[in-house]
Design a protein that fits this description.
18% of the residues lie in helices and 22% in strands. The chain is an alpha+beta fold.
Length: 83
Amino acid sequence: MLSANDKDKDYVLATEIQKDDGPFFCPECEGELVLKQGRVKRAHFAHLPDADCAYAGEPESAEHIEAKLEIYEALRSQPGIEK
């Protein structure tokens, strides 16, 4: 998951924040998320292991996360499109 809500319910993108900016929450279930920022995979959010959310199932592949980020960046570059 590339985006989440912060404690103020503002939208945040995993690639544009730091772990210290948390806590972060799922926009769907409002459960707490973990920000994962490693050296191998793209930064993303993950549910805690015991989460009961439709988005907590199978993890997204690196290709899927990368494709979503490319779509986000393409849309963001268009005039009149905001976060």
